Amino acid sequence: MFQEDENDEDFIVSDEDDTLGAPVDMPLAFTNVATMKAKGLFKYAVQWFVQRKINPAFDHDAEIYDLAFKKLDDQVKGLVGSKFTSSVWRQDFTYALQARPEIIVNELSGGFKGLGCEACGRQSHPATFTIQFQGTPYHIETLDEVSEEDSDDEPARRGEQYDSKGRVIPSEDRIYNLGVFCKNNATTAHTLAHWRYHLNDWIVDYLENQGYCSAEKLVERERWSTKKRGKYANEVVEEMMKAGEIERLYRDFQAETDTAREAKQLWRGRK
């Protein structure tokens, strides 16, 4: 059974403090939530994903969610932009990395080693790995897939796909040969860039494995009002908190950013 300790204080919600939903009696800027650090706000990010699955009609843009994602994104964006995404990378490579949520990395066999790196274009960086970006492009704010209607340009030619900014991105079949330096940076940048997508995947799997998305539960909730579904989703989050799941998820998130930060500092030390 999960036991609270001093490190878990930010994850425990008191009835006398803030609630799982956004405070309703006063503007958020005047509540203790406004000064919370990323760790304390992480539970609201989890709540957003749970609500999205169980109660799709919830207020996606509630102020509490905007604050939570802003604080968490701040931990990630500086790392992605300042170190792990290179300005010398080919445009199509960068677009694919940013748009597609899945990545496949393989080591090149001996017969193909020695080719130049196709990310940075430097022949002096011999390719020793391949990277392939897969998955449908999506909108990071909503996690909804990008459709052809989202582009302001002319209709896509056969086989073309756009990212959330309307840019044409390479096919999922495109395989890049990379040197070890660009491979390491690209895999880290990809993990950080798509943290919301993969956290959502984990939470959806968790909800399904715990039976919250069984056919019986779906039929039962079909008759519920949005308010009742929202309350139920909050109860699910509370159960996740009591079981220590949210704390474990935050530790995983923190471990990813800590690893990236340490790699960044190590790289600086070698300059």
TrEMBL record:
This is DUF4211 domain-containing protein. Residues 10-143 form the DUF4211 domain. It comes from the Eukaryota. One of its GO terms (cellular component) is nucleus.
